């Protein structure tokens, strides 16, 4: 179930993936895998390019289906796989696509992390309220995360107290905002100083859609417009 994509290989990081945003499994089940996704869903790199190759897509669906079909066996198999010597002292990014889509799924990952204490597990997540309830009170020592802007729960975040990450147009914009970059290593998002900035992906039509705004700015604009529409509807 564990793999290593080209972007993370250079940092010596392995990864675990499920389909991004939502998927229809071969048996017909529809599964929402990023329930708190906001504007990020429109320009998610994991919904384009190599992530949509049939073999890659099938592997991500298998990872998801194995959990849904038999979560206890999925947990046992994952712990056994990560116990292999090559992972000892290593790092695993949970979800270079997908997110913690349910309480049971997140709880299972916390047990996996506790079951393999010599591996560092880390994630970007938009599941803020779920993490507030299930992770923040008692996180495993080897489980790190960063809340990434661009989701429906952005308004719950406080950069002064939460570890946060945002997507910027370029490195110059990150520096101008006074944020720290993860350009040197993806691990800087969870181990380096916060708040953390990262640059847009290089897919031309996605860069055009994002423009010069950050995900945080984009999501704030969308939320404000939504409130205005609701207000106007209530007054009519």
Automatic annotation (TrEMBL):
Domain of life of the organism encoding this protein: Bacteria
Gene product domain location: 15-211
The protein's name in its UniProt record: Gene product 88 domain-containing protein
Origin organism lineage: Bacteria, Bacillati, Actinomycetota, Actinomycetes, Pseudonocardiales
